[in-house]
Amino acid sequence: MDVEQPLALQSTGLVVEELPFRFAARIEHIEAVTGWEQQLELQQLHEIFLDSFSELRMSEPPGTEECPLSVSDLKEYTEVIRNVRKRHRPVVALLAEAFRKMMHNDAAWIEDDAFQSWADTFLISRISTEMLTSHYMAVVESHDPSAAQLLSEDHIGIVDTKCNPGRICEEAAKAVQAMYTSPRRLEACDFFMCVHSHSDSGSLSAIEFSYIPKYLFYIVQELIKNSARATVEACEMDRRRTLSQRPIVVTVCADQKQVAIRIADQGGGVPFGKGDEIWSYRFSTSKQPVQEYLESGSPLAGWGVGLPLGRLYARYLGGSLELMNVPGTGVDAYLFLRRIAPEGVPRSSISDSLAPV
């Protein structure tokens, strides 16, 4: 079966052209850090990007605009991309562990604004390459009868043209609830979480828009997880109110231009003096082992990078993430997402220019 030519060729072309270039830029990015050779995690990151760069440069995908392209033709190259994705899974965890060690060693650079800029640039590139390879895999597998799961007609690569944010928020809330009822926890936490999804402005239909579901899930899950952690800590400090008396409320609404998601908790908020630190990679309330990060499957899991990385994801996809902090009461997180009509999603690629290197 031939792959849909414009979609497959464009996706493959972007991968071939962009990935080696971006990985080379990240290698230089790491080498710009003074003493990176003495930092184990930075060494490992350097090796990951170098190995992927070399593997991609040694691999040339078949097919041209003049030559028909089939799934079988792309099988070998697709396996290369699958290996690259597997190799890059621990990147965020390794980067965050490097941050932690630099803070522990009192590295002066990590206190400077240049560090925040360095981290933002690194992670934006991570987002763009992860999104590019995800899209490529989705395009190829959507035309492969042997794939584990074929995408529905509502999907264009990784984009769901009928993404239901209310349903995704419910799934994220259930996932967080499951974390706190896991057998590995010493004490189960009985949260009260509720999701209110209002009808689309001006219609009686459910809210649907074109978006990438898994990234929306990751962002919402991280926000709910932060609220859950804060709520547990607040209850431990003040036992006059139980978890069920401190509900986490998720509200979804939309108009014709954007979708808004509010996640409100009663976890006590963040002290005024630390309010600005929330968006810093130096700020963390979680100590999460690398293995737990890998098992979670979330690129935002713990490590103190969840909120700033979530904001980068939102901005990268044309939205924004803002927090309203009320110390002593709680935090309201506001996620604003731009609406794009299904006909506005290009079927040739996810983006003609993913992001600055």
UniProtKB/TrEMBL annotation:
**Where this protein primarily resides, as one coarse class?**
mitochondrion
Q: What is this protein called?
A: Protein-serine/threonine kinase
Q: Where in the cell is it found?
A: Mitochondrion matrix
Instruction: Enumerate the PANTHER family for this protein.
Output: [PYRUVATE DEHYDROGENASE (ACETYL-TRANSFERRING)] KINASE, MITOCHONDRIAL, PYRUVATE DEHYDROGENASE KINASE
* Domain Histidine kinase span(s) in chain numbering: 216-341
> What is one term from the GO cellular component aspect held by the record?
mitochondrial matrix
Q: Which GO terms describe its molecular function?
A: ATP binding; pyruvate dehydrogenase (acetyl-transferring) kinase activity
A Gene Ontology biological process term? regulation of glucose metabolic process
Superkingdom is Eukaryota
Give the EC number(s) listed in the UniProt record: 2.7.11.-
Q: What is the lineage of its organism?
A: Eukaryota, Sar, Alveolata, Dinophyceae, Suessiales
**Catalysed reactions, as listed in the record:** L-seryl-[pyruvate dehydrogenase E1 alpha subunit] + ATP = O-phospho-L-seryl-[pyruvate dehydrogenase E1 alpha subunit] + ADP + H(+)
Q: Which Gene3D superfamilies match?
A: Alpha-ketoacid/pyruvate dehydrogenase kinase, N-terminal domain (1.20.140.20), Histidine kinase-like ATPase, C-terminal domain (3.30.565.10)
Which Pfam families does this entry report, sorted A to Z?
BCDHK_Adom3 (PF10436), HATPase_c (PF02518)
